[in-house]
Amino acid sequence: xxxxNLLGAAALVAAGAALAAGTSDNGIxxxxxxxxxxxxxxxxKPTPIPGIYQTTFGGKVAYLTEDGRYxxxxxxxxxxxxxxxxxxARRNLVRQAIGxxxxxxxxxxxxxxxxxxxLNVFTDTSCPYCKKLHKExxxxxxxxxxxxxLPYPRGSSRGPGYQSLKQVWCADDKAEAMDIAKGLxxxxxPSGDCAEADMVDRGYALGNQVGVEGTPxxxxxxxxxxxxxxxxxxxxxxxxxxxxx
Length: 245
Description:
Elements: H1 3-20, H2 25-35, E1 45-46, E2 52-57, E3 60-65, E4 71-73, E5 77-78, E6 83-84, H3 85-99, E7 107-109, E8 117-123, H4 128-134, H5 137-142, E9 145-151, H6 162-170, H7 174-181, H8 198-209, E10 217-220, E11 225-227, H9 232-240
Parallel strand pairs: 8-9
Antiparallel strand pairs: 1-2, 2-3, 3-4, 5-6, 7-9, 8-10, 10-11
Helix pairs in contact: 1-2, 6-7
């Protein structure tokens, strides 16, 4: 286990101790957030196992004992029902978090014909693999998949794509602006100085909340995470739930 995980486990143990001492859920959340560098942490929830509580932070799921002595980070699996409870929790976290973003604050490429699936993508205009995936968006659209872009500037405000993402989100037509920013068509972008540009910072925070570690970061409508670039010929059957996906 690396230092970051050890610190996280230590924070969970401390939170468990606070729980045993009668500290409120909000207090536990604040303690975890402080110990994890300000990360957003959910309040502990009981699990099907007596005395074991679940919490989430940064797209990760962790568990602690009621007395606060033990904590672990990993997957909790119901062998009888063959259900990964941790994965279900992660997907629910992602689905709820992304679901709170208004569609007007995304750059959307609608499916052609019947919409069969939705793909949420955290992207950066300076990311080579983001550009590679973007070239294949028309193939996804043809397959009935709607692509919804969320901004995630690598390196935050110091990242190479930060300003151009702001320019994209200031455009009246974000999809067209994304095409321009990623070099698919000629054109100019607005200055990037507008209220809508705040979405770039909020997108970065949201990405960190749901566990984005690099771009492109793909999430299905159900909240399943698909890390990195995946060619459209492989991605389409995965999203449409075809056998072998």
